[in-house]
Design a protein that fits this description.
Chain lengths: 250, 425, 193
């Protein structure tokens, strides 16, 4: 039986790691407010991350599964959301049936910079910026990967040839990414006054994008703690009942 | 009033129902007083656990279906809408996705329990074969379910696996186009997979009813592999095993809840959060973990048809297991060589799983082939021979003797007859 | 769960009375735990059937009244229902206010015109545009539409007629046009729902 447990543990470990490329890229990790059993989203960091998304990233990347009203989850007040939304024009149909635009409302999805894939590729030399709604779950390494990628630009190692229209990035699989470095220090002026180092910006964007991919995270972990504790208690109770019922047999 | 069942139920309303449809008497008989061997260990909990997981999957599946749209431009977004907008939608989705993994964990343990203790042997052959049918239906259901979110793995996994059927001579291409409803995995495929994914679990319920019915005809096996001789060897199912199962269910739920609430994407692939793109193949196409051993067997054989045959063969061989294993002794407890080889088989299956996760190059190819070879060797060569050649340990006289009295498989007092393994109760 | 089977002699312990008490208490705890577990499992399923966040977000709509000239009406969709918003003329307002309860087919509250409009905004009538007979959408919003004898709306399906306060004056409709909750956010904007 011991052999069985050991085997299964080993198997579990071997299977839980994702399928790796021959040349594995080591991702530096950092502390996140939302990790662990009791994690929550650092509201200030997430709001700063949204500011960067709004001012920089949203010019190329859509986030069409998110709504402006989702910003309440990171503490943005509702009237502020109305203002933020109204600054963006979203497609609609005019009364005469022709395509037109109207200001967005909180109930609208985040405005996409391009109406469709072809328009995006045409504007960006054939590259398609991925939608960011669930990007944190769609990449191995999640939040760490996003933060590392944003800071991973630099000169390629000697001898490596970078293709046309591509840029060297230490953490992108294959090391050649179509996106030029999107952020530098002070790319935005944070409205809460925090110093906008590249590290800070990367951390904040990753926090925001993790929120957008996992808006239920705080509710899920809170409920999880209650459920697991209750079930552990039930284990104790049912075990006691079992022992009692079996006491005349053993 | 001929033909009415004579009911022993006291309550007048329940008695009225029971005389006309003896469900209550049946529940009393099958789950109340049913004589169950008294020496079950915790590996006997897993059948009941599988039932519980199936109920969870059906309930969560039905409620997910209230919000899911099986159309290729809307499927991915509808799943995300469930995660974000539907009240407790995230719980339904994570519960259902991780429930599938739990279902396979529980069923695999249940199967290996059967292999170790010889539960597939006479008179339980049909019970075992129904179990293999259950495994096949589960695999089909899980495969189609994984396609529904229409992520990259959904699409490409479906493409790879449906393409396999083209390996069959003559009818192969036709089967593939029938599955696809077109010239590639596309909207018709998604729609029919949704319809079938909703249907198969209810087929599963039917097969499970037969599985449990067959079990109740023969009675359960037990860790010693010898049939109960009388009431001293058994206990009524309620309250002994209802309470033991309740405890087991609670332990299971703790593990399940820990995964759903704190590591909901542990078993998943990040690539499936990328919407399906027929023009872009992911770097690695990997099925869900519970299919990895079969994937490894498939890729072990260089020939396409050979790989397909061996992959399906690995499950088909289980159907005839009761006739492949020639040993008159059921439980591995009394089969010292078989016991060791059981662990080798388990190791081979684990190795196959790990191999399935990696790209088929270098050491993984070798390991995959060795493990595949051992798997088939075990069932087709070793088991038939072992039954004839192995010298089993002496069996205890009876269950109650072994459990209560003078210890397990020690030598019997002279004159006492050893229990014959295949005796009926 | 049925009766407990007590097969052999009770386990050695404190006397049969205390033993039974301990046994019963434990069973009570287990049973109530199971009940709580069951109920808390059921709740998320039922809750998931209630309107989801995206449906609730579209549950209220803001309408700008400024573009609606006097004497005209528009139709706006709110929660899937057509809302008639009419900018009433002074004549229409007076006609509506002069009607007594005795003259109405449906005098149940709210039937007086003052109960069907917002104070200081009596030129605006906001009603749900679904005929209370069998659910057709009455005519009367467009200037070219027939409005019936009482100047409000006319339902072409079976001939029901409504007045300038949306009250039924000629059947077969039994009830006045229904009202929906709304409020003036500014003098020229309302939020319905």
């Amino acid at each position: 039986m011991r052999a069985a447990t050991l085997l299964t543990l080993l198997a579990g470990l071997a299977l839980a790691t994702p399928a790796v490329a021959a040349d594995e890229i080591e991702l530096p990790t950092q502390k996140w407010s939302f990790s662990g059993l009791f994690g929550t989203f650092d509201r200030a960091s997430a709001q700063r991350g949204f500011q960067i998304y709004n001012q920089v990233c949203s010019n190329c990347h859509s986030m069409k599964l998110g709504y402006y009203r989702n910003l309440t989850g990171i503490g943005v007040p509702e009237d502020m959301i109305k203002v933020i939304a109204a600054e963006k024009m979203v497609p609609t149909i005019a009364d005469d049936g022709t395509p037109a635009e109207r200001p967005a409302t909180p109930a609208d999805h985040f405005r996409s910079p391009y109406p469709n894939e072809k328009a995006a590729r045409a504007a960006l030399n054939g590259a398609l910026p991925p939608d960011l709604s669930v990007i944190e779950k769609a990449r191995v390494g999640g939040s760490d990967y996003i933060a590392d990628l944003l800071q991973g630009y630099g000169d390629p190692p000697p001898g490596m040839k970078i293709g046309d229209g591509l840029y060297y990035n230490k953490y992108f699989p294959g090391n050649q990414i179509a996106m030029p470095q999107p952020l530098q220090a002070d790319a935005v002026t944070y409205s809460d006054g925090t110093k906008a180092t590249l590290e800070q910006e990367a951390h904040d964007v990753a926090t925001f994008l993790t929120y957008m991919a996992n808006p239920e995270l705080e509710q899920r972990k809170r409920l999880g703690v209650k459920v697991v504790l209750f079930l552990l208690a039930m284990c104790g109770v049912t075990y006691a009942v079992k022992r009692q019922v079996w006491s005349d047999v053993h | 009033m001929a033909g009415l069942h004579k009911s022993d139920i006291k309550n007048p309303v329940l008695n009225w129902i029971d005389t006309r449809l003896p469900v209550l008497t049946m529940v009393q008989k099958e789950y109340g007083v049913f004589p169950t061997p008294r020496n079950f260990n915790y590996f006997w909990n897993f059948g009941a656990l599988a039932m519980v997981v199936l109920m969870i999957m059906i309930a969560s599946g039905i409620f997910l279906a209230m919000h899911y749209t099986p159309e290729k431009t809307m499927a991915f977004d509808s799943v995300e809408a469930i995660m974000r907008d539907v009240n407790y939608g995230w719980l339904l989705r994570y519960g259902h996705a991780n429930g599938a993994s739990m279902f396979f964990i529980v069923v695999y343990i249940h199967i290996f329990r059967g292999l170790y203790y010889g539960s597939y042997k006479s008179p339980r052959e049909l019970l075992w074969m129904l179990g293999v049918v259950i495994l096949l239906v589960m695999m089909a259901t899980a495969f189609m379910g994984y396609v529904l979110p229409w992520g990259q793995m959904s699409y490409w996994g479906a493409t790879v696996i449906t393409n396999l059927f083209s390996a069959f001579p003559l009818v192969g291409e036709w089967i593939v186009h029938l599955l696809w409803g077109g010239f590639s995995v596309d909207n018709p495929t998604l729609n029919r997979f949704f319809a079938l994914h909703y249907l198969l679990p209810f087929v599963l319920v039917g097969v499970i009813l037969f599985h449990v019915a067959a079990l109740h005809v023969t009675g359960s096996n037990n860790p010693l592999g010898i049939e109960p001789k009388g009431p001293q060897d058994t206990l009524p199912f309620h309250p002994y095993y209802t309470m033991k199962d309740s405890f087991g269910i609670c332990v299971f739920l703790v593990i399940y809840a820990a995964v759903v609430f704190f590591a909901p994407n542990l078993f998943g692939e990040p690539d499936n959060y990328i919407p399906a793109n027929p023009l872009s193949t992911p770097a690695e196409i990997v099925p869900e973990w519970y299919f990895l051993p079969f994937y490894a067997i498939l890729r072990s054989v260089p020939d396409k048809l050979g790989g397909v045959c061996l992959m399906f063969g690995s499950i088909l061989v289980l159907f005839v297991l009761p006739w492949l294993d020639t040993s008159p002794v059921r439980s591995a407890k009394f089969r010292p060589i078989y016991q060791k080889l059981f662990w080798v088989l388990l190791l081979a299956c684990v190795v196959l799983g790990v191999v399935g996760k990696h790209r088929p190059e270098g050491i993984w190819v070798v390991l995959g082939r060795v493990a595949t070879a051992y798997y088939f060797l075990h069932f087709l060569v070793i088991l038939p021979l072992l039954g004839k050649l192995e010298r089993p340990l002496p069996l205890p006289e009876s269950i109650s003797r072994a459990v209560l009295g003078h210890g397990g498989g020690g030598p019997l007092p002279s004159g006492a007859a050893a229990a014959k393994p295949m005796e009926k109760a | 769960m049925g009766e407990t089977m007590s097969s052999t002699a009770p386990a050695a312990g404190h006397g049969p009375g205390a033993e039974v008490g301990k046994r019963d208490f434990l069973k009570l705890v287990a049973a109530s735990g199971a009940a709580v577990l069951g109920a808390s499992l059921v709740w998320p399923f039922i809750n998931s059937m209630e309107p989801s966040a995206d449906v609730l977000a579209l549950g209220s709509v803001e309408v700008d009244l400024a573009p609606i000239p006097v004497g005209q009406a528009i139709t706006v969709l709110w929660r899937g229902k057509p809302m008639f918003i009419r900018h009433r003329t002074d004549k229409e307002i007076k006609e509506a206010q002069d009607v007594t309860l005795a003259q109405l087919i449906d005098p149940s509250f709210p039937a007086l015109d003052s109960d069907r409009i917002k104070a200081k905004h009596d030129q605006w009538l906001v009603v749900i545009g679904i005929c209370t007979h069998l659910g057709c959408i009455p005519l009367g919003n467009k200037p070219t539409d027939p409005r019936g004898e009482w100047g409000g709306w006319f339902c072409p399906c079976h001939g029901s007629q409504y007045d300038t306060s949306g009250r039924v004056r000629h059947g077969p409709a039994p009830l006045n046009l229904a009202l929906a909750p709304y409020a003036f956010t500014t003098d020229t904007k309302i939020q319905i729902g």
